[in-house]
């Protein structure tokens, strides 16, 4: 009986440990909130300013914490900041915490930024979204950045 109770406890603990991953985008609404974020990242990877701008409110705000300083710009300026290059860039989020209330949403997620397939920095993205004309769009982004990241 003792072994059965122990196995039950371990089973419950392992379920708790993976619950955030399983709930990443459990509902269609959560998937809809994550869609413009992935589309933004895809646009960045293609250096496609128009694709980036299609997912954001251009007047929205960006706050990037770099080297202990806050770099501020609008989302339109951020789109201009992504200049074409021969380098491949990719941003990945994982284990997002998604909060939705009516027509506003927030996603808090760890990220890795890759340059030519190698992680060059990581941190946390905080992305605010609003529903405009039945479509989720990004209204603001904040992130921090560090270089001591696990390699992928």
Would you give an account of this structure?
With 152 residues, the protein is of the alpha+beta class. It has one domain (25-143): Nuclear Transport Factor 2, Chain: A (Roll), CATH 3.10.450.50. 34% of the residues lie in helices and 41% in strands. The protein contains 4 helices and 7 strands. It has helices spanning 2-22, 28-45, 49-53, 75-81; strands at residues 56-66, 69-74, 89-93, 97-101, 104-115, 118-132, 135-143. Strands 1, 2, 3, 4, 5, 6 and 7 form a 7-stranded mixed β-sheet that branches. Strand 1 (56-66) and strand 2 form a beta hairpin. The protein is globular and about 35 Å long. Residues 1-23 have low confidence and may be disordered.
């Amino acid at each position: 009986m003792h072994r059965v109770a122990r196995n039950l406890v371990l089973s419950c603990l392992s379920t708790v440990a993976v619950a955030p991953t399983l709930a990443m985008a459990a509902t269609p609404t959560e998937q809809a909130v994550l869609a413009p974020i992935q589309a933004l990242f895809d646009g960045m990877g293609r250096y496609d300013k128009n694709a980036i701008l299609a997912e954001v409110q251009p007047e929205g705000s960006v706050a990037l914490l770099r080297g202990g300083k806050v770099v501020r710009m609008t989302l339109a300026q951020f789109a201009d900041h992504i200049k074409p290059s021969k380098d491949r860039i990719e941003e990945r989020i994982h284990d997002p915490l998604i909060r939705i209330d009516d027509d506003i949403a927030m996603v808090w997620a760890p990220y890795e930024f890759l340059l030519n397939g190698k992680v060059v920095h990581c941190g946390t993205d905080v992305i605010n979204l609003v529903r405009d004309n039945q479509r989720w769009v990004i209204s603001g982004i904040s992130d921090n950045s560090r270089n001591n990241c696990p390699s992928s």
